Amino acid sequence: MELAAFAPRAEDEHPIRIALRSAIVDAANNAPRSLQTALGPSEYGDPCARRLAYKIMEAPKVNTDSDPWASILGTAGHAWLADALTADNQRTGETRWLIEQRLQIRDGLTGSCDAYYVPRRAVVDHKIVGPAKLREYRASGPPDQYRKQVHLYGYGYTRLGLPVAEVALAFYPRAGQLSGLHLWSEPYDEEIALAAINRVDTIITVAYQLQVDDHPAHYTAIPRTPSRTCLYCPWMRPGPDTGVTCPGDTTLPAAPPAAG
Question: What's the superkingdom here (predicted)?
């Protein structure tokens, strides 16, 4: 994308636009999900061990200006889908869906799973994504992070005593029509969930052994996995890898300035 696309526009300084954006960003930054400090199921499969270590040790954030709009749309979409599945239960007179079930996956790890489809004993997680990602997931399957997340939900349901035979990811187009809905699924595998848990436990052990809370430079000993998501990492700052912050993927251009 050309830098000219990020050039200031006259409308950027309109008082109403400034007020709207300020209210939206403030609400997003103070939403319960944004204020969460413990790792959630969606983060257990993050490929970057360094990022997980920063989060686990509550390292100070330095990259906090990312645009929240995509996550806002995702949150709103999840709420609408929950209402739709609740209405489906009421309309059919059957409990076909368990919705937003709170799961205790392990000590210190809880999460709300979007849905459990009773007829197939299937865990379902909603993802609302852009056109490029939708094409990628349709062609190549979901990222490992999403796959681990939905198996962790499956593990949480088994701890509740419910049978889990299948896990599924429903990808909804953020732009387009419902006909673009892509459903990926596979049999539930407890070993995938346990491997994700064991990996996080190993990162916790290493972080404490390195005493990174007292010696932030020691974070450099924890492997990092640069990718396009580095631009949205709260601990990414271009420059030398000092451990206090991470340079992220050095092959990517700098992020454009936030508008407004």
Answer: Bacteria
